Every structure is written in structure tokens, then in C-alpha cells.
Amino acid sequence: MRKVKPARKLGRTAAHRKATLSNLSTQLLIYKRIETTEAKAKETRRVVEKIITKARKGTHHAQREIFSALRDKDAVRELFEEIVGKIGSRPGGYTRIIKLVPRFGDAAKMAVIELVDYAEAPSAAPVAAKQDRSKRVKGSKKAEAESQEKEGGEAAE
Amino acid sequence: MANPKAKMSKSRRDKRRAQYNARTKAAVTVLCPNCGEPTLPHRACRHCGHYKGRQVTGKIVVA
Ligand SMILES: [Zn+2]
User: Fold this and answer.
1) Which residues in A lie closer than 8 A to residue B62 (C-beta atoms)?
2) What was the pLDDT predicted at A5?
3) Cα torsion angle, B48, B49, B52, B54, sign
4) Looking at the domain assignment, is residue B46 inside a domain?
5) Nearest 5°: CA angle at A105, between A101 and A110?
6) Residue B50 included in any domain
7) pLDDT tens-digit profile of A53-100?
8) Which InterPro entries match (chain B) (predicted)?
9) pTM for the whole thing?
10) Range(s) of the domain holding residue B29
């Protein structure tokens, strides 16, 4: 019997889903780490791992196929000129998903998805962590004081 | 038609509503090995964004 490969629909039409995953993949290739919902992260993983594997062939044909999926010249260039070289001989598993605490507001499960080969070294200067956003909404003075401290600290460095 | 015989007092109303979440269990938390704040297990710390000994939130700066 014909079986459908299980995949999340993400509450979107096929075209909308395709666009969403294309956008997320593009952003991941450019920024190396993106924050999104757990479901979208896991679907993006399926898409982007295949794209990266294809890119490692390095052929003009592969490049055109990937461009037709991403529609973003900068991302394709980054992928072929930087990322492929950085990956080396890694046999798949180019991405890593780390769960985050639920999003403030709708308690959606959140996660970061990152390119493994870019994430090993501890990254500098944490940019406004997720929790700051929720604190800002509440407008607590403590959060304001904390964020001011952080800004002051970053400026001092 | 069915109708309430008497007004529901604020006290009765609030006592009923007090039970809505009364038996909700508190979330399991662990203490972050990096900053010591309570946070959820198997997730990046909500306070400092560390997981497995490294920062996992924020931008990746490509050298
Ligand atoms: Zn922490």
C-alpha cells in the first residue's frame, strides 16, 4: 500500500509551507543559527540537510536546483563558497536543534537550529536573550535595570 | 426557561474559579549549571541561554 511520508503541515497550505521552509532554510544558511518553533525547526532540518548534501556535489546543476528551491543568490553563494568547505567530510547531520523555553505569549515550543560546523566555539556577546522580551512586556523595573546593565557591559567591552 | 434563582455572589464565583488551576502541578525545574537559576530540563537556560556548557542563543559571529 502507498504510504505518505509523515511530515508536519505547519497549519499552512502546500505553497505557504514550501515558502516558509524555503525562507527558513535560506536564513539558516546565511545566519548559521535561527530561533523558531520546534516544529518549524524540525521541518527545516529535513529540507536544509538535503540541500546541503546536494550542494556538496558542487555541480552547476546542483547549484541551479538549489537556487530554484531557495530563490536567494546570497544564500546559494554562501552555501557553495563557504559552508560546503567548512563541513569537510561530515556524513550528514549538519544541523543541530536545541530546545528553548516556551515562547512568552502563546507558550509555543521554541528551539534554535544551527549549523554544527559554525556553532562549536562559544559565541561572543549573547544578543538580547529570549527572556528579555517577556520581561519587557511586563515592564518590570528589574528587567529594565538588567538590560541597562547588559548594554553598559557590552559598550564597555 | 431555566434561569438562576439568585445572583451568584462574587465570593461564590471567585471560590469556584479559584479551583480552575488549583491542582496544576508546578513545572519540573533544574538549576542551570552556568548561572544557577532555575530553568527547564533539556532546554537552553531561560536566563543565560546556555546548554551543555556553551551559549546557544544569540547571533553566531563568523570570523
Ligand atoms: Zn543559566
Assistant:
1) 32, 82, 118
2) 86
3) negative
4) yes
5) 30
6) yes
7) 999 999 999 999 999 999 999 999 999 999 999 998 999 999 999 999
8) Ribosomal_bL32, Ribosomal_bL32_bact, Ribosomal_zn-bd
9) 0.75
10) 25-63
